Amino acid sequence: MALITIDKEACKGCSMCVKACPKNVIAISSESNKNGYFYAEAVRLDACIGCAFCALMCPDVCITVEK
User: Fold this and answer.
1) Residue 1 pLDDT > 80, yes or no?
2) What does pTM read for this prediction?
């Protein structure tokens, strides 16, 4: 299992990470950040394989994946 850290205040909710994740670990939150964006959050960490596709796809470099 890997640890995914997402900077929710920097996230703009583009959902590129959600689409990139082969295990559906990330989803868009129903809550918004201080800028009004619905941010990405890791919802199924137990399914994460640590591929870091989510971090690679993030245009704002909001995601860190640690194995």
Assistant:
1) no
2) 0.91
